[in-house]
Amino acid sequence: MYFKSSPVRKRVVEKELWQRKGLNMKAIIAINKKNYIGLNDSLPWRSSEDLAHFKKMTMGTKVLVGRVTYEAMPKLKGREFIVVGKGYNTLEEGLAQNPDWLIGGKKLYESAIHLCSELHISVIDDESIGDTLAPDLDNFAGLAAKVFKYSFKTNKNNV
After folding, report:
1. Taking the mean position of all CA atoms in its chain, how far away is CA 48?
2. In the chain, which residue ranges form alpha helices assigned H by DSSP?
3. Structural domains in the chain?
4. What is the DSSP letter of 66?
5. CB neighbour class for 40 (10 Å; exposed up to 12, middle 13-18, buried from 19)
6. Are strands 80-84 and 62-66 parallel, antiparallel or unpaired?
7. pTM of the model
8. One digit per residue, pLDDT tens: the chain, 159 residues?
């Protein structure tokens, strides 16, 4: 009997293949109340609570990051960066290095979030407008992964 393969089924199979290779990657993402994750290649808010949370979760680990995000962010110490994009690794090369965390940006989330075993979402108490909306996380929820949600406030006066 012939069964048409759905996009969700393809993602499940891809996830199983990478897990057999030892991949146990988690994703971490911060979004605000309007579902934005970025503005001018940066965060549209400032939250020292969320930054401390990010540091606690990713310190001493290997993080998979897209080229644009990597080149725009401050150079963070205490993490091994695996950069994916033009002039760096392909997605497959990055995944083969068994990263612990997927930290963005949007294109990388859209390409690889379905491979993660956990999704850690920081919801920022902020209504700023950005230029980059979060990827569709509803598609992720159906892939048998644990989802953790955190809530953080922005710094007073956004400084």
Report:
1. 19
2. 7-20, 48-58, 67-72, 91-96, 106-112, 138-141
3. 24-158 (3.40.430.10)
4. E
5. exposed
6. parallel
7. 0.85
8. 334 556 666 777 777 788 778 788 999 999 999 999 999 988 888 999 999 999 999 999 999 999 999 999 988 999 999 999 999 999 999 999 999 999 999 999 999 988 888 999 999 999 999 999 998 876 665 555 678 888 888 875 544
Strand, coil or helix: 53 = helix
Residue type at position 118:
E
Buried b (16+ CB within 10 A) or exposed e, 58-95: beeebbbbbbbbbeebeebeebeebbbbeebbebeebb
CA-angle at 122, arms to 24 and 101, nearest 5°: 20
